[in-house]
Structures are given as C-alpha cells and as structure tokens.
Amino acid sequence: MARLRVAFLGPAASFSHQAAAEAFGKTSAELQPCVSFAEAFAAVQQQTADYAVIPCENSTNGSVVQTLDLLADRNGLYNDVKVCSEYYLTVHHCLLVHKGSFPSGWAGYDGSITKLYTHPQAWGQCDTFLSRYFKGVERQDVSSTSKAAEIVSKETAERGAAIASRFAAEHHGVDVLQENIEDRADNTTRFLILRNVLAERTAQLAVEQAATNFAASHKTLISFTINHSSPGALADALLIFKAHGLNLTSINTRPSLKRAWQYIFFVECARTPTDENKDAVSKVLTGLRNVTESCRDLGTWEDQSSPSRG
Ligand SMILES: O=C(O)C(=O)C[C@]1(C(=O)O)C=C[C@@H](O)C=C1
Candidates 57, 63, 121, 163: which one to mutate for ligand 1, based on the most atoms within 8 Å of Cβ? Predict the structure, then answer.
C-alpha cells in the first residue's frame, strides 16, 4: 500500500506537526504541511491527503473557533469529511527571539521587544506571562506558531519575538529567551483526526490508539440547527441524546450566518459501547432529523483521554 498522507497546519515544527508526527509515528506516513486548517480540510475532501490532524480545543483557552467553522461547513465544501480519532498533545510555549539578539538571556532582558507573533490560539494560553512582561506590546496573529518562529528567524531590523515550541526554535534556528510561558503546566490541546468517509484505504484506522486498560468510551460529534422561534426546540433535541443513553460532554455554538443570533450547535456525546447501545447514534440521528432544521453526523471515535484526565 502507498504511504499514508497526513495533512497538518504548517510550516514544519508547528504543534499540529508534532501531533501528526506522534499520532502517525509508527506508520511512516508522509506528513503534508498546509497553510491553513481550510487547506487541510480540502486535502481530505479531495483525497490528496488520507488524514488531517486539526486542533479543536485547548484545556486553558477553549475551542478553536476556526475549526468549528470548518466543521460547520456552511457552504457544503467538506461533505465527506468526518472525525475518526483524536490526539491529546501537552503544549509548552517558549518566547523565541532572533539568534544572538539577547546575549544575556531572560535574566538580562531589557524590555526592548516591540512586537509579538503567534497563532491566535496561543495568546490565551500564555496570558499571565504576557500581561506581566509584555503589557501594551503589539501582537500580530500569524497562521501558526512555527510561522511566527520563521518570521523572527528572518527578521533583521525589528525587535520581534515569537511564541512557539522549543521544537520550532530548533527547526528555525532561533533562541529560546524564556520557556514554559504557558499559564498552566497541564496545558493540553486536543486534535481531531479527520478522514474522508468515501476513501477505502482509511476505512481501517491507521493511527496508533493509546493502549487503554479501561473500557474506552466512544465519542460522537453531531451538529444541528433548530427553529429558534419554537420554544423548547433545543431542549427537545437534547432530550433525544438522553433517551438513547448518550452522555452529553460538550456543547459549542457558532453563528449560523443565515440570520443574526441564530446558531449551529455542536454536541459531543459519549457512551461506553455495549450490545444494547450499538445503534444509539443512528437512533439519535433519526430522532434529531424530526426536531431540527438540519443535522449532521460528524463522526464517532474512541476516547483517547486517559481516565486521570477525567
Ligand atoms: O500554531 C500551531 O503550532 C498549531 O498547530 C495550531 C495550534 C492551535 O490552533 O491550537 C495548536 C496547538 C496550540 O494550541 C497552539 C496552536
């Protein structure tokens, strides 16, 4: 069989790269950097990639809204893309500067950094450090943390700094001015692994699932829209999950973009698989189709969080 192709948000040395390398480490997959999450979704839809590894939420900073918007798929661009697994990556951020620009290191830092670069998700993960040392310093969102490191590596005149990983520092040849600048030592990002449901070669999951010594529950992600003027429409939809024994674990919303203040709901639910509940997801979907305006099954996969993560 030809090598598996795995799309991720590049350039090389992003956290997404790290997650893809770890999740597919044993498969000698070809890792394909993409300039955006949208490009990675498109690669799976068009089957130029077999899988994509996409961040969906962070334990400190919450949901990755760009990913929810792509899953919302308002224009029907990614009809065949579904979640088939997940991967948890502990995320440690560093403050990176152009090589040799601060020879006395953090201890001798003189407050001269004038601009910070990182992926929008990273700001909220390093809030305490940034408010303490970089209050009022200009922040520029860039496409990924590794892109931020690359920018700083090429900088000549400016005094910029990037927030990215130690791996990115080594890859782009920049200095680590300070490490572990994240607010919480347990800062973790959950990545979704996507596949195209029409692709036969990924019907059998290639990713290494964590060796679990507990009965792993199965997670399911479903999106739906409801009639906002009908009292109880959301309650009716949620009761269907309860009726079929699916435990709701998270609810997210994004604007429908059809009418202001109307939403697409994303519901994640879990069940410990048994013979009795093996059809629960399809029953829930049938039930939802009766009480929602639209609804979409975004996939079912094995829970990869360890019991200690709760
Ligand atoms: O910018 C990167 O390195 C990414 O892979 C993206 C991303 C994210 O969007 O959550 C991944 C993990 C970290 O939470 C920060 C950024």
Answer: 121
Ligand 1 centre to CA of 182 (Å) is 13
The packing angle between helices 233-243 and 280-291, to 10°, is 160
- Kindly state whether residues 170 and 221 are assigned to the same domain: no
**pLDDT tens for each residue of 219-242:** 999 999 999 999 999 999 999 999
126 close to ligand 1 (CB < 6 Angstrom)? no
Q: Which atom of ligand 1 is nearest to the CA of 89?
A: 12
On whether residue 256 sits in a domain, the answer given is yes
Q: Would you tell me the crossing angle of helices 37-45 and 65-72 to the nearest 10 degrees?
A: 30
Same domain? 157 vs 221: no
Q: What is the pLDDT of residues 60-72, one digit of tens each?
A: 999 999 999 999 9
- Cα separations in angstroms, 291 against 236, 263, 298: 7, 15, 18
Cβ of 67 closer than 6 Å to ligand 1, yes or no, is no
149 Cα: distance to centroid of ligand 1 (angstroms): 13
What's the burial of 110, exposed, middle or buried (CB within 10 Å: 0-12/13-18/19+)? exposed
Q: Which residues of 198-207 are buried (b: 16+ CB within 10 A; e: fewer)?
A: eeeebeeebb
- Give the pTM: 0.95
User: Looking at the domain assignment, is residue 170 inside a domain?
Assistant: yes
